[in-house]
Amino acid sequence: MRCADRINPGDLAGATYTDNSDDELRRAAEADGLEFAGGGTALPALNPGSYLVALIATSADRVNYHWLRMHADGTWSHKPGNGTVQGSDADGNALNHGNPPHAANFYFRAFFESSPKRMLLMATAEQQGWALNYDRFVGYFYCPNIGLQAREKKGCCIMQ
């Protein structure tokens, strides 16, 4: 059962991030039980008993981040906002060993470009400052295959 639709880095440990810096997002993710695997351009080695996730963030004034997950076949997926799970970046390029999260384009406005109605939303998003460019690669983390331990948070369960 899962009744929280969004869990922020640090929520599971009661140590939610306090700002949008890479160090603070890393600290909060590690408090939840993720193990930092590196922040460089080299893809970390696989770690038995876990899978790899990547964390990216925006340099904009607001706090905003995005998670991606690596699958056993070396491909990656992510779920932008309320959209569907995708295996490509904002340019439509497949996320894989040749286009890993630290090198991919995640400019949010591109997700609006699929229809004329969405083109209007895209223009509005840019005019209102809603378009987000996930231009910072925070790092790779190992997530245990068994998941992370959750606890109650402010009256709503966030159990795995």
What does this molecule look like?
- The structure is a single chain.
- The protein is an alpha+beta fold.
- It is built from two helices and five strands.
- It has helices at 22-32, 116-128; strands at residues 35-38, 50-57, 65-70, 76-77, 136-144.
- The radius of gyration is 16 Å and the shape is globular.
- The chain starts with 21 loop residues before the first helix and ends in a 16-residue tail after the last strand.
In short:
This protein has helices at residues 22-32, 116-128; strands spanning 35-38, 50-57, 65-70, 76-77, 136-144. With 160 residues, it is α+β, with helices and mostly antiparallel strands.
Could you say how many structural domains there are in total?
1
User: How can the largest sheet be summarized?
Assistant: 5 strands, antiparallel
**Total strand segments:** 5
| Nearest-integer average pLDDT | 78
Helix content: 10-25%
User: How large is the share of residues in beta strands?
Assistant: 15-25%
- H/E series, N to C? HEEEEHE
Number of helices in the DSSP assignment: 2
CA gyration radius, whole angstroms? 16 Å
Question: By helix and strand content, what is the structural category?
Answer: alpha+beta
The global form is: globular
Order of strands across the main sheet: 1-5-2-3-4
**Uncertain stretches:** 110-125, 154-160
In angstroms, what separates the terminal alpha carbons? 7 Å
